[in-house]
Design a protein that fits this description.
Length: 82
């Protein structure tokens, strides 16, 4: 019985911390982004969803920046500001 009480206490603490983590995540983002997280049960699942949905965009953005840097390599300052 003592083990059950301890396990229950740990679980209740986790539930409270999980609820706080989810609230912080949802409060710190735009509404349209938070709507995409609707139905995800844990903050871990929310983070995974956000990472997966933005990973491709980050790689694409990196390639755009690298391409832009290469195109400016032989340019002058004046060319840059045109």
């Amino acid at each position: 019985m003592e083990s059950y009480q301890t396990d229950l206490g740990v679980y209740e603490t986790w539930l409270c911390e999980e609820k706080s983590a989810k609230a912080i995540l949802l409060a710190s983002m735009e509404v349209d982004l938070s709507l995409s997280l609707r139905g995800l049960a844990t903050s871990h699942l929310m983070w995974d969803h956000l990472r997966r949905s933005h990973e491709i965009h980050n790689e694409a953005m990196y390639l755009v920046v690298v391409e832009e840097a290469h195109s400016l390599h032989d340019s002058t300052v004046e060319d840059f500001h045109k």
